[in-house]
Design a protein that fits this description.
Shape: elongated
Number of helices: 3
Structural class: alpha/beta
Distance between the termini: 43 Å
Helix content: 25-40%
Order of helices and strands: EEHEEEHEHEE
Strand content: 15-25%
Radius of gyration: 16 Å
Strand order of the largest sheet: 1-2-3
Largest sheet: 3 strands, mixed
Length: 134
């Protein structure tokens, strides 16, 4: 796969599966990496391709009750995709944060409320970089 070091690609020919750990691209956001994964998968019919992006900022998700509002469905889908690919836990704050935590947890993401985050504004997930002492 062009643009990545050979050791950043894991290929399983028996299962027709490839995992690519992407390097940071200038001015690229998570949506760019998701689009690249889609293009790679379309070029390899019959293969499962996963592109693991760098842990960039996650988009805010406006919640409408217990689900993302219509306009935020793409932001939620991008957050879920990135969390599933990267595999890091996330902390969530903002209005609707508890609901977003529930959705992410139901999809297998290690998510928890961020007590230090503001409770206003859209729900926002961020990568948990350290475990609080306790």
């Amino acid at each position: 796969m062009a643009g990545v070091a050979p050791d950043a690609v894991t290929v399983d020919n028996d299962k027709n599966r490839a995992v690519v750990r992407a390097t940071p691209l200038p001015a690229a956001g998570l949506a760019t990496y998701r689009a690249l994964e889609t293009r790679l998968a379309e070029a390899r019919t019959g293969w499962t391709i996963q592109l693991i992006p760098p842990p960039l900022a996650l988009p805010p998700v406006e919640m409408a009750g217990d689900a993302p509002d219509t306009a935020a469905a793409d932001a939620y889908a991008l957050t879920l995709w990135a969390a599933q690919r990267i595999g890091l836990p996330v902390d969530v704050g903002g209005a609707g944060g508890a609901e977003l935590v529930s959705l992410l947890q139901a999809a297998g993401v290690d998510a928890r409320p961020d007590p230090a985050a503001a409770s206003t504004g859209p729900a926002t997930a961020r990568w948990r970089t350290a475990t609080p002492a306790g």
